[in-house]
Amino acid sequence: MLKLHALAQSRSLRIVWLLELLGLEYTLCQHARHPGTLLAPDALKKVHPLGKAPILQDGDMILAESGAITDYLIQTYGNGRFMPERDHPDYWQYQRWLHYAEASLMPLMLMSLVFRKIETAPMPFLIRPAAKKINEEAQSRFLRPQTTQHLRHVEQALEGKNWLMGDFISGADIMMSYPLQAAAARSSLGMYPNIRSYLARIEANPTYQQAVGKAGKPILQLA
């Protein structure tokens, strides 16, 4: 049986959602966050050397990285569902979205979080103005412009579509759900009606709701 090691209230929810979509039997092993840092516990290192979630076990195989897990589950158990056929013109665009979510969009969310934490971290009073200036410079010169560029790109890609690949949910939507939810937690997304509608469709999906019931909603502020 498939076993998923997931960090409580994390982006691991995406893989729980996919398992529900696929209708597969699986065991969900929820790992509590470290009480001091809210990060993954050391116990996960017994499953995989990096000690990060999600981690999928399928027999003797242990697989980390959400994109790789998504691709593996769909190609192994999807029976042609949730992805374009390999010879379809959209196949490589589908693959691009799988990787884009964590390689391009999510790093912007994480960097924004890190710089905000620099400003609010405990520090000597005299250093605080410099920390605030560093955060403001990083946000205004790089992070906000880059985030705007990427959100505009996703907004355009969703024009006239229910899902990224058209009329059917795919692995691309599984992977893109979390970084877009993280973006929505930082902004109203008022300029991006397609993204807002897209996130509403995700959260209204019955299998997504089943996944939330089992794994809990992610803490988006932790990215």
TrEMBL record:
Pfam families (UniProt xref): GST_C_3 (PF14497), GST_N (PF02798)
Keyword annotations: Transferase
Record flagged with keyword Isomerase: no
InterPro entries registered for this protein in UniProt: Glutathione-S-Trfase_C-like, Glutathione-S-Trfase_C_sf, Glutathione_S-Trfase, Glutathione_S-Trfase_N, GST_C, Thioredoxin-like_sf
Cross-referenced Gene3D superfamilies: 1.20.1050.10, Glutaredoxin (3.40.30.10)
Occurrences of domain GST N-terminal (ranges): 1-81
Entry keyword annotation includes tRNA-binding: no
Domain GST C-terminal: 87-223
Gene Ontology molecular function: any one: transferase activity
Protein name: Glutathione S-transferase
Organism annotation: Neisseria arctica
